[in-house]
Amino acid sequence: MHPAPSVIIFTTFSGLGFGLLAWLGLGFPDVSGGTAFAFFFIAYALAVGGLLASTFHLGNRKNAIYAFSQWRTSWLSREGIASVMTLLVFAPYALSLIFADTALPFLGYLGSILALITVFTTSMIYTQLKTIPRWNMPLNPVLFLLYALSGGALMAGEAKVAGVLILLLTLLQVAAWKMGDDRLSSTGTDKGTATGLGSIGTVRMLESAHTARNYILDEMVHIIGRKHAQKLRMIAGILIGALPAAILLLTPAGHVTSFVALACHILGVIVGRWLFFAEAEHVVGMYYSRD
Amino acid sequence: MTKPENIKVETSPPVSDEVRQTTCYMCACRCGINVHMKDGQVAYIEGNRDHPVNKGVLCGKGSAGIMQHYAPSRLNAPMKRVGPRGSGEFEEISWDEALDIAAGWMGPLRDTDPKKMAFFTGRDQSQSFTGWFAQAYGTPNYAAHGGFCSVNMAAAGIYTMGGAFWEFGQPDWDRTKLFMIFGVAEDHDSNPIKIGLGKLKERGAKVIGVNPIRSGYNAIADEWVGITPGTDGLFILSLIHALMKSGNIDLNYLSRYTNAGFMVNGDESSPEFGLFLRGKSGKPQVLNRATGKLADYDKKGVMPDLAGNIRKAGVTHRPVLQLMADRYLSDDYAPEAVAERTGISAARIKAIASELARVAFEEEIVIDQPWTDWKGEKHDKMVGRPVSFHSMRGISAHSNGFQTCRALHVLQIILGSVEVPGGFRFKPPYPKPPEAHPKPHAGVTPGQPLDGPHLGYPMGPEHLLINEDGSAKRIDKAFTWENPLSAHGLMHMVISNAHAGDPYKIDTLFLYMANMAWNSSMNTSEVMRMLTDKDENGDYVIPHIIYSDAYSSETVAYADLILPDTTYLERHDCISLLDRPICEADGLADAIRWPVVEPDRNVRGFQSVLVELGAKLGLPGFVNEDGSQKFKDYADYLVNHERRPGVGPLAGWRGEDGTGKGRGAPNPEQLDRYIENGGFWVDHLPEETQFYKPWNQGYQDWAVERGIFDAPAPYVFNLYVEPLRKLQLAAEGHGDVQPPENLRQRVKDTMDPLPIWYAPFEDSNVDPDEFPIHALTQRPMHMYHSWGTQNAWLRQITGKNRLYLPTKIWEANGFEDGDYATVTSAHGSITVPVAHQAGLNENTIWTWNAIGKRKGAWALDEGASEATEGFLLNHIIHELQPPKADGMRWANSDPITGQAAWFDLRVKIAKADPPPPESQPAYPPIKSPVGKGPKNVARKVK
Amino acid sequence: MTALPASTDKKLGLVIDLDTCVGCHGCVTSCKGWNTENYGVPLSDMDAYGADPSGTFLNRVFSYEVQPADKPAQTVHFPKSCLHCEDAPCVTVCPTGASYKRTEDGIVLVNEDRCIGCGLCAWACPYGARELDQAAGVMKKCTLCVDRIYNENLEEVDRVPSCVRTCPAGARHFGDLGDPDSDVSKLVAERGGFDLMPEQGTKPVNKYLPPRPKDTMETAGIPDLKPVATEAKGFLGWLDKALEKL
Ligand SMILES: Nc1nc2c(c(=O)[nH]1)N[C@H]1C(S)=C(S)[C@@H](COP(=O)(O)OP(=O)(O)OC[C@H]3O[C@@H](n4cnc5c(=O)[nH]c(N)nc54)[C@H](O)[C@@H]3O)O[C@H]1N2
Ligand SMILES: Nc1nc2c(c(=O)[nH]1)N[C@H]1C(S)=C(S)[C@@H](COP(=O)(O)OP(=O)(O)OC[C@H]3O[C@@H](n4cnc5c(=O)[nH]c(N)nc54)[C@H](O)[C@@H]3O)O[C@H]1N2
Ligand code: SF4
Ligand code: SF4
Ligand code: SF4
Ligand code: SF4
Ligand code: SF4
Ligand SMILES: [Mo]
After folding, report:
1. What is the pTM of this model?
2. C-alpha distances out from residue A8 to A13, A53, A275, Å
3. Whose CA is nearest to atom 2 of ligand 5?
């Protein structure tokens, strides 16, 4: 898939934002007044910014209102609704913390659940796609949730929890990469089934239907070199987890170390997200394969 | 919010305000189209269901016609060159000025030396008109593009049986059971072939594709015969060998309808050796099987004795069939003997021969339709052999193409499958034997018309167009010993001969609709040099070039004066029975184009411009007695011109009352009738005339009625072509018109009256070990030469080409996707992107024709992939062969017809490491005289 | 509507004959022509005359090479447009309800007045049958020419998709694949029509007919022709006898 900056930004930052909200709703850290403002500002900025970024991916924003209409069937619609509900529920919770210095725990817990649901719906937008086997596995939502929770914990300053979560995340991410590598072949989809010609012999594309670009090629047929991918996985793995976890678990807690760990982690998530898209083989690629 | 459940889709929107029916010209197939108009604009184009050619369907080009019509590359106004030739710098001028300039060059030449004006036309469909113009002007130097296109096919067909495949005839698609297609990627008969193949597929009939490349029609063939290029003749003669040897030939057919029984003079010492024995009547003689005596071949009741012979004065004279047996039964043609050279296993050749024999003779078709033959004999049924063939440039565009095409026709004929149910059928006005065609003319008198039509079919050395000293009368050296039967001229030799001043220099080169500075020239780079080359005085070696194009092609940049044509939807045109009609086997048909929209630029239909230019020059036929312009425009000419009394460009609705078919006085309302009828006229053949046309009394009479002939002209097929033997005899020293010494042996060797095979000339001119690979081009079905590129839809489908390599070459050189290769011939090299194809003859490489473009042409961005990655093979093909031992360079053409031997090309290949930044050679951009196209397009007439 | 109908009254679709398609792209440009002028926004072409063009097409024709174990490689031309799947994943993912499958005939359509151009339906389609129009930002796909097949302004014979009407080889067939007695259903049964990527579970309505077996002649055991003579003289003897029988 095309690793479009808009979707990378969206998934990275809205994930962090909703992750932070989830922790805030549970009272971690226990903030009020100006500090609460700062935390909620950051959380909202990330969540809303991410969502806005995702709309850059839209061809026709003027119809956006309809996107909330199909919650019965569409994960994208559900995500829209969940994210708006989350933001709505957190608003009085945050206001009350900032201005009244009062926690409304019920709203907080509800908000946290909604935040996690939002992250889950986001993950399902990708996970549901049978056409992209690498995404189409149960581990995918788990990872999305872990990303949100660990990034959120980092930002919430819950260093030790974050450290543990990040370690777990890293392990599962590595596992997901490995599992993902076999997903396409395990679906049984190949050039033979794509064209139905497999029973005659081995199939390869002789001539594409178009020498010019088109939407399908630009969007779905992104080919990334295997060696290149392995290197990036290493980098992502170190930045997401190994390095921040080491910093968090082995050094004494402090603002500077937390910040360094967070910066590393975010950078890692961005690389990871880039890989998430770039490595995702869409089965339509079968129609364009020359080997 | 609307509930989605309530979505109402407009399922019955109005389609258009009006439908105007005309003829497609995205290629020369000439399908009927319905042009849907909205708001006075073209909105949608679909096929015309009633049209005899396409019956409603359209190909990829035709359906994209709207984008051709609205292409930004359209020329806007007449132009004169202001920068150096080739720069593309022009100034727009008025039509008056343009015509003054043209007449200013052409008028004085006509009065002094008309041959200094050479007029050559390309993808033109008005040859009877342009030829008439050139004849009235008086230059011998006129031809269309057939010489580099497919004259081998046309001429071999005419000489053998009065017509070839192509526009001359078609398989009996409804009945044939086994169909063999040789060397065709697309052809002119584009939609009819596809419709026909569709019919075969529906019935599950067998298709055998003979082609080094498995694509297009060959992809759907049941059997793919991946032959080695240039060896079809050998393969076909081997099939003939197998069929003759097993007695699988149609003796009844051969006896009645061919010259198989003509007695051939066997007297080696005679100047008539190898010619037919003729009787007092002058007619060829056969041995009457009933009497054992010689008789006129066409005498009623005579059946020739193909097995007999006569001895006279110690010399044996034998019928043609026996000469064929002598030759083709030889083991030289045994499947085992040809397998290696053709790349087809002996078992495969045998299987194909068996299958041909089985289907032809065991699956005979009988139609209960009585008919009467030319001798008055009545037949109560029509018997057919359901095997059929089609072929085009794959066998034609080789230096042995004429003889190979002949061989294929002979194969069809011995199977008895021409003009019979299930076999191959002619499309009227064909068949038409060589005798019925004009002879070539080149008699020049300053200020006067030429002494006759330019082109035709010579019947012997006496018809060649050579001077006493043996020099050529025509600039292209057509009808000389170099290529005596060059029935279509040699457009590919015009620029190089004119540049060399051989046989003479010319002053004005007038070109129409041919991209000669690019894809239609052999050795494009050299041609561009010749067009810009200057003499010692600093003048261009070819002083004046006038060109008519409709679009901003590469060649526009090389002309001094541009006469901008309209698009095909903006002008009158005529697809006439007088030149290249649209007939089907069971119908006589012609068609028009008419301005379904008026041009919005200062452009004019080229034929109308010629009408005016002819009048300005005072050409006979173009002016009234008082010297005033005779025809207002081309439309006026179409209606009112008569070639012979009662016969004009259009055959339908003739006569004052419009009831005349083929014959009749001009009808002022003729064009309206055509328009009302959808732009075409068709007249179906009566049932009893549908087959056996050359020998069918009913057909002959019908043809006379329709003005195709002036008197019935039945004839028999020429297995043995006597005019070839006459040329050969001259080379053997007989007669006054003698070939030059350097060509004598070649004439003897190649003008064989019975089909032969010899290796393509390039094989002996270059070292086959050094250049082991055959390099070919194919036409993409969705692109017409260079035209398609300016079409925003089509260029997305194929906007660059790659060189396809077979597995053996791909692996031996370690090629990978994205690689470039340097391809070198004896003439030059190109460096181009490659791709792998497994379904390819193992010694053959190929690419799509004419995708590569010059930067700056066609209103495209200079970085267009057509110009940066796309490429032409033409740069490494040459119109001349490498020098012989005596230093002479022969044309890279068929020695009989002069057909350009595009596909003889041999090359070697090497990986280009590192790849160049763009395909090589790369030329500097030309300045676009029409600017560049708009950025984005989303055209919809509301 | 984003939910798929439990069943549709008809299953209109195409049957594409891979044994007959010559790869002429007639269906491609005819489709582009009709659908630019008709349903929804025109199919745009970006940088149309430039260095890097790209445009929207609803139907495209690929060429594949198939290499059997013991025979020469075969070439197959392969047209591909929306298959109007029964279990169309493109529909259920759509957040706006713009994508829907019609209950009356099973045609899958995009309501452009609702589409936000998110592209998710194109991601969900295994076949690459949807293209987001870059000028209008709405999703485009084969409409099965819904504005032709019922169009009362067209003659009855012309009420078929544009691509079917134009296909010169007759490789495209249109009809109700839900009706086992329809011509298309019979054709599918007769010729062993198949689904593309059945494992994706989309249940395509459109079917493909396989190429017939190829290059069988050499091994089919066709008997060699029997010679009537081995040299010219023997041939004459045969000729004489054969002529007698005429
Ligand atoms: N390598 C290689 N080269 C080949 C061949 C090959 O097989 N291989 N094939 C050869 C053959 S057979 C042929 S016929 C030639 C064809 O080559 P050309 O005859 O040169 O064909 P086009 O490129 O179509 O060029 C025709 C010109 O006509 C212009 N034109 C289009 N429409 C109109 C119109 O309505 N009016 C006017 N006045 N002009 C118009 C176009 O813009 C173009 O410049 O190519 C030859 N070249
Ligand atoms: N779409 C489209 N249609 C066109 C044209 C076009 O440009 N585009 N051009 C028109 C013109 S001007 C012409 S002349 C016709 C030409 O129509 P075609 O004859 O179909 O022309 P080519 O594309 O040159 O195809 C030649 C075929 O012969 C094969 N071939 C080459 N050498 C050999 C050989 O030695 N033996 C055999 N058996 N096969 C061989 C090639 O692989 C190729 O498939 O098409 C006309 N129709
Ligand atoms: S074959 Fe195609 S381009 Fe040629 S005339 Fe017919 S529809 Fe037009
Ligand atoms: S082919 Fe693709 S777009 Fe069409 S219905 Fe099936 S999934 Fe949807
Ligand atoms: S692009 Fe349009 S039709 Fe497709 S899922 Fe998004 S809103 Fe629905
Ligand atoms: S049915 Fe209509 S929209 Fe679909 S591919 Fe055919 S022409 Fe295009
Ligand atoms: S129009 Fe017919 S033959 Fe041509 S590509 Fe389309 S399906 Fe194939
Ligand atoms: Mo040609």
Report:
1. 0.97
2. 8, 9, 10
3. C115
